[in-house]
Amino acid sequence: MTKQFFMLHGRNGATYVFNAGSLSGIRESLKFYKALTLKGKVMKSALFVVLLLLGKLRLTPLWTGKDVSNYLGALPDEQIAFELDGHCSVHVAPTRDKVIIHRHGRCFEKVAFGGSYAGVSNEALVYRGFAGQPRLFSISRLESFEDHGSYCHFAMSHDSLPPAPVGDSIDWSAVLAEFFVSQGGSKDVLFGAYVSALREACERGGWASHAVLDALFDHFSSTYGDERLPLGLVHRDFKPWNVLPFSKPLIFDFEETINDGLPCEDLLNYFIDPIINYQSTEAVQAILFGEPVQQALVRYSKALGLSVPVEFFIFAYLINRVLFWRARGDDQTADRYAALFDACCSSRTWP
User: Fold this and answer.
1) I want to staple 76 with a disulfide (CB 3.0 to 4.6 A). Which of 90, 95, 109, 113 is the partner?
2) Do 117 and 152 contact (CB within 8 A), yes or no?
3) Whole-angstrom Cα distance, residue 209 to residue 198?
4) Is 229 a residue whose pLDDT tops 80?
């Protein structure tokens, strides 16, 4: 059996299995490598050269398809057949309980077990909820879905779309406003009821004694309590690496998606979540309240006809992010969001 696969373990715990068997195989494999910075793009180019040399010279670091299948088969507690051929590449999530197989030119497959089982099952349900292709963004087609009780598997494919022109900026406010209502529209709740539910969530999370938090809850509830608040489809993990920049951007990775989320969350998350752990609280706060983000929030608000000011959605976003990351055991990220919330309160950003 031909040795053509190169395994690379990333710093975040993920494992990448690149296909060095051909030039096209290398290019397709590198679609797993999302290079968003200049350093990342340089490293991606260097990796391309390394894979090209390995493939040409058939050097010893390369694995056969059987080697890779055996490696993947040892990850779950039960027997799962990972059938690989010479035209695929693989990504193993840092949690080691989710495997993504790229069948080059055909489809992507997800196999999930353990802690990733519920999220990937949820993702399949989200794909099923779309009726046709949206106007401003695109989604993959769900080709198949198999639920085996303790693990699941699905395949998805998408049409080949031209990449967005270099330098062309996507209006994420318009895209995400459409995404928010793309599965049957939104449903309205009383603003006061949502604030009460958010307050209770904070109490369960240990924030009951936070005096400033209570004062802000009281302010928003008394001022806007009788307003109607729309809840809709929210990705919850919307970041640059979960989008492909086609002429109609392809949105994917719906494992955290909910259909009763708050407006503006995805828009704010796109700007803030990628930097929350890598920039100072002051720098993140400056971006959050800087003109580009604030203008995008205003456009989003107008597109959905929101009657509640965007300040509330920033307030709720930060609280929800603390609760989101705390529930997933990532206290570092949760603490960074809590620090950002405190900084916003200290600077009297809100009433």
Assistant:
1) 113
2) yes
3) 15
4) yes
The residue ranking higher by pLDDT, 209 or 229, is 229
Instruction: Examine the pLDDT at 88 and tell me if it is beyond 90.
Output: yes
For the stretch 299-306, contacts whose Cβ atoms lie closer than 8 Å and that sit 24 or more positions apart, written own/partner, are 299/171, 299/173, 299/174, 300/173, 300/174, 300/176, 300/177, 300/263, 300/264, 300/267, 301/263, 301/264, 303/173, 303/174, 303/177, 303/178, 304/177, 304/180, 304/181, 304/186, 304/230, 304/263, 306/230, 306/263
As given in the structure block, the two tokens for residue 337 are: 């969001």
CATH superfamily for 3-157 is Phosphorylase Kinase; domain 1 (3.30.200.20)
Statement: residue 350 has pLDDT above 70: no
Return the axis-axis angle of helices 310-327 and 291-304, rounded to nearest 10°.
Answer: 100
Q: Within a 10 A sphere around the Cβ of 333, how many other Cβ atoms? A: 18
Distance CA 262, CA 254 (A): 16
The domain at 172-346 falls in which architecture?
A: Alpha-Beta Complex (3.90)
**Given this chain, do its domains 3-157 and 172-346 carry the same CATH topology?**
no
C-alpha dist (Å) from residue 216 to 252, 272, 284, 290: 35, 22, 21, 22
Q: What percent of the chain has pLDDT over 70?
A: 96
Percent of the chain that is helix, strand, coil (3-state, to 5): 45, 20, 35
Mean pLDDT of 83-96: 94
Please report which helix (H) or strand (E) contains residue 49, including its range. helix 38-57
Radius of gyration of the chain (CA): 22
* CA distances to 216, 254, 297, 299 from 314, in Å: 12, 22, 9, 15
**Residue entry with tokens 């752990």:** 277
| pLDDT score recorded for residue 54 | 87
Per-residue model confidence as pLDDT tens digits over 94-110 = 999 999 999 999 999 99
pLDDT-based confidence at residue 225 (cuts at 50, 70, 90): confident
Report the half-sphere exposure of 115 (CA within 13 A, side-chain side).
7
The residue ranges of every structural domain in the chain are 3-157, 172-346
Please choose, from the candidates 138, 125, 109, the residue with its C-alpha nearest in 3D space to the C-alpha of residue 251.
138
Residue listed under structure tokens 């949760």: 334
* Cα–Cα distance measured from residue 86 to residue 2, given in angstroms and rounded to the nearest whole number: 9
